[in-house]
Write the structure tokens for this entry.
Amino acid sequence: MGSSKTEGALHIVVDERTPALWKEIFKAQRNPEYLLAKIRFEGNSSSALVSFDDVKFTRLNQVTNDGIIKYAKVAVELAIGLIGIMALWLGIMKIAEEAGLVAKLAALLKPVTTRLFPDVPAEHPAMGAMIMNISANMLGLANAATPFGLKAMEELNKLNKKLGTATDAMCTFLVINTSSVQLIPATVIALRAAAGSSNPTDILGPVIFATTINTTVGVIVVKLLAKLPVFRRQLE
């Protein structure tokens, strides 16, 4: 005896009694009126099979429409808003660099850096590159700091007696470079201004305090770890 199949569309009204999973599928389908499903009867059976659209597909559709497109627009608006602000601050920083402010700051940092890096000769090129990197980071000159940082690591590696293993000076410099005391956080100021802050520079005090504490703790930790036998053996 043969069996026949009957298929049809099923429109389900979603309310408080609807199962949670069905509600999720309903949200993913983005149909404001009802949950759409397919119903199939087989032969003379009193039961039926109800199937919904692929949830993964509808989720991807939702992410594409609500997520990617929306935040792509936000990214473009934010980027355009940052262009002028970043140009202003980077211009001011460039003037400071050309005026010798970075060089003067480097001279002030020299007594500190000679204590932080006792294994690096004071007149070695690595010391000059590290000082310039730290000075540029303090003034928010990230573009200027990057080549100085790369040059510093290159020069420090020339003093390395065991190539492939980071020296104490390398580790200390990496901590200082990463934590980076900020006197003028140009990027954060620009982001706050783009977000509509009425006073985007009012974070200067907290930023200076937080980054100073951050760098201090980092230097203390790296100096303490450098004295542990397990790390000393790696340099022998």
